[in-house]
């Protein structure tokens, strides 16, 4: 009940934030632009719209997650609104989970709206609706949820700018760490390979949530990869959120 | 009478700065607030008043010491449900209107919708904001924020109200209104703990005070016990005599033309000053014994540090 109250208030705060509309505007502009781009090129136009569309959903969704994720928790601490809130009978864990839920709700609505624009543009071009696109979008959403949790974790102990940089690094590392897999195959067994293995296990692998290429090119996705991605996202999010709660519980609000 | 709050031997230090350096902020605070009274927590800026209050509210964890609220450990939900808190320089969600804000806080106490609506309306009226109910908090002035902060602290009808510098940022009329409200709280049977660095504000309304300086409580008790009736010194205004002739008997505060203002600390010396005035045919303008006020107590303690 208190979690819900905090979540809804966070949602209210987020949707009254102008930055969100700016990003939303850019996302919509990019989606429209993808159609223009498609008209200008030869080749499979539908593929280009899908490609650019999914990429921009992912990109602008990530930016939204980072900006509101790092901003909203820090703002509570910085502006001291948290003083009155936490002096009420609310657990600190409940507060953080409420914030997280509110942000996830915001991202759900935003990603939903962007997806509708995307699907409508695509439909106007091809007069077809592909359910597979929804799979790719669902996994983009899972990734946004994870990024939000990471942003909240960082904003428990640093400023929004630093947290944004950290979260962005998490995102970039997460999308390049799969390169280690190739590396592991290439280098000879020994210390170097073990090191690469350890690094791969420790670093986030966000590519396991990326089914954009498969969906755009109509390649079948093995169900194991879907299940694997889902479990990976959920467990990782739960872990990061638990870590954030741990940090937040111990914090002195001076 | 039972205590609404007891604090025993509270210690807290912070690690501050880029290269963390430990700074001891609270150095063994003990105090108790009796139910149904107004307790004044006094001290200069930086003494540790806000830190103590935040520790009581669970915003800061103490290094050592025990805090009980109505006999319960201070972090227990049961204890917190009976507390209302107004922070120093309050700031709230500025994207909410006053009514939305109170409704939100009412929800956190799981109040029913009718209760929330009823209470918000009544509280807004009580703090003089009924016309600002639908105004976003970003448009509020400093004094209005103080008032909505007070309303927010009362949303759960608390038995114990903790107010950190409640009169800060208010004009004289506002100060009087808030002071009257605080006295009303006591009449309703609530217990009040309020902090301040301005004495006149609260010496009239507090039943008991504690003076905190540099993280230690230096004095605690009913006001009339802390402020003695003892005469500290006597101020004598004279004229038409040579300042040198009374210089040894006290401290000459000022000399304006003929007029001398003299501070005498010893009763026996007053007689001698009067004798000199009589002998030299000087004039006596006034003779005022100064007793101790809370302000003096305060200044004395601070200087003693
Ligand atoms: N955020 C902070 N950063 C650095 N020092 C702080 C902070 N908050 C409090 N302090 C230090 O703690 C001491 C006590 O502060 P505080 O409890 O706010 O005093 P008071 O409320 O009596 O004015 C001060 O000396 C201050 O330097
Ligand atoms: Mg203070």
Give the ordered list of helices and strands of chain B.
EEEHEEHEHHHEHEHEEHEEEHEH
User: What is the share of helical residues of chain B?
Assistant: 25-40%
Instruction: Tell me the CATH topology of the largest domain in chain B.
Output: Rossmann fold
Q: What series of H and E elements makes up the topology of chain A?
A: HHHHHHHHHHH
Domain unit count of chain A? 1
Mean pLDDT of chain B: 89
CATH architecture descriptor of the largest domain in chain B:
3-Layer(aba) Sandwich
Secondary-structure-derived class of chain A: mainly alpha
Tell me about the largest β-sheet of chain B. 6 strands, mixed
Helix segment tally of chain B: 10
**Class inferred from helices and paired strands of chain B:** alpha/beta
Shape of chain A: globular
What's the multimeric state? heterodimer
* Spatial gap, N to C terminus of chain B: 35 Å
Low-confidence runs of at least 5 consecutive residues of chain B:
none
Strand order of the largest sheet of chain B: 6-7-8-3-9-10
Helix content of chain A: over 70%
Instruction: Indicate the CATH class of the largest domain in chain B.
Output: Alpha Beta
Radius of gyration of chain A: 20 Å
Number of strands of chain B: 14
Descriptive keywords:
heterodimer; A: 254 residues; mainly alpha; 11 helices; B: 305 residues; alpha/beta; Rossmann fold; Alpha-Beta Plaits; 2 domains; 10 helices; elongated; binds magnesium ion
Note the topology.
The complex is a heterodimer of chains A (254) and B (305).
Chain A: H1 2-15, H2 18-40, H3 45-78, H4 81-86, H5 92-126, H6 131-155, H7 160-176, H8 179-186, H9 191-202, H10 212-217, H11 223-250
Chain B: E1 3-16, E2 21-34, E3 38-42, H1 49-56, E4 64-69, E5 72-73, H2 77-80, E6 83-86, H3 98-108, H4 113-126, H5 142-153, E7 160-164, H6 172-187, E8 191-196, H7 199-203, E9 208-213, E10 216-222, H8 223-226, E11 231-239, E12 251-256, E13 259-264, H9 267-279, E14 283-291, H10 294-304
Parallel strand pairs in B: 3-8, 3-9, 6-7, 7-8
Antiparallel strand pairs in B: 1-2, 1-4, 4-5, 9-10, 11-13, 11-14, 12-13
The complex binds adenosine-5'-diphosphate (ADP) and magnesium ion.
């Amino acid at each position: 009940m208190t979690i819900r109250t905090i979540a809804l208030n966070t949602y209210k705060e987020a949707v009254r934030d102008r930055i969100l509309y700016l990003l939303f505007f850019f996302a919509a502009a990019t989606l429209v632009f993808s159609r223009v781009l498609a008209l200008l090129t030869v080749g499979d136009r539908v593929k280009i719209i899908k490609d650019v569309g999914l990429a921009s959903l992912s990109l602008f969704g990530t930016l939204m997650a980072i900006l509101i994720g790092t901003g909203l928790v820090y703002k509570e601490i910085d502006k001291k609104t948290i003083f009155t809130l936490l002096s009420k009978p609310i657990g600190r864990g409940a507060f953080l989970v409420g914030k997280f839920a509110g942000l996830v709700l915001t991202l759900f609505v935003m990603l939903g709206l962007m997806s509708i624009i995307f699907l409508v543009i695509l439909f106007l071009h091809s007069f077809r609706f592909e359910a597979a696109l929804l799979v790719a979008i669902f996994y983009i959403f899972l990734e946004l949820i994870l990024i939000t949790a990471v942003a909240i974790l960082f904003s428990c102990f640093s400023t929004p700018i630093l947290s944004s940089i950290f979260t962005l690094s998490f995102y970039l590392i997460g999308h390049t760490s799969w390169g280690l897999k190739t590396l592991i195959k290439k280098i000879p067994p020994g210390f170097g390979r073990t090191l690469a293995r350890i690094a791969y296990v420790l670093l986030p692998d966000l590519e396991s949530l990326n089914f954009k290429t498969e969906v755009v090119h109509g390649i079948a996705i093995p169900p194991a990869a879907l299940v694997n991605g889902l479990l990976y996202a959920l467990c990782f999010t739960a872990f990061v959120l638990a870590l954030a709660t741990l940090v937040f519980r111990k914090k002195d609000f001076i | 009478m039972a205590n609404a709050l007891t604090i025993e031997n509270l210690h807290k230090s912070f690690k501050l700065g880029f290269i963390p350096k430990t700074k001891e902020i609270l150095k063994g605070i003990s105090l108790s607030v009796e139910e149904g009274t107004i307790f004044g927590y006094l001290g200069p800026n930086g003494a540790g008043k806000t830190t103590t209050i935040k520790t009581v509210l669970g915003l800061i964890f103490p290094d050592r010491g025990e805090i009980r609220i109505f006999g319960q450990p201070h972090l227990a939900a049961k204890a917190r449900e009976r507390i209302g808190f107004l922070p120093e320089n309050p700031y709230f969600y500025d994207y909410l209107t006053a009514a939305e804000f109170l409704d939100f806080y009412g929800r956190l106490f799981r109040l029913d919708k009718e209760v929330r609506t009823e209470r918000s309306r009544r509280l807004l009226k009580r703090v003089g904001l009924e016309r600002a109910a639908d105004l976003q908090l970003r448009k509020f002035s400093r004094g209005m924020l103080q008032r909505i902060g007070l309303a927010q602290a009362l949303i759960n009808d608390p038995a114990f109200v903790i107010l950190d510098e409640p009169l800060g940022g208010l004009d004289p009329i506002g100060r009087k209104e808030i002071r009257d409200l605080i006295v009303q709280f006591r009449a309703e049977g609530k217990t009040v703990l309020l902090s301040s660095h301005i004495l006149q504000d609260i010496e009239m309304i507090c039943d008991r005070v504690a003076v905190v300086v540099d993280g230690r409580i230096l004095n605690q008790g009913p006001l009339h016990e802390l402020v003695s009736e003892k005469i500290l010194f006597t101020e004598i205004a004279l004229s038409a005599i040579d300042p040198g002739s009374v210089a040894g008997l006290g401290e000459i505060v000022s000399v304006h033309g003929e007029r001398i203002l003299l501070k005498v600390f010893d009763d026996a010396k007053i007689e001698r000053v009067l004798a000199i005035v009589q002998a030299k045919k000087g004039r006596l303008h006034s003779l005022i014994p100064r007793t101790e006020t809370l302000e003096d107590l305060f200044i004395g303690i601070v200087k003693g540090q």
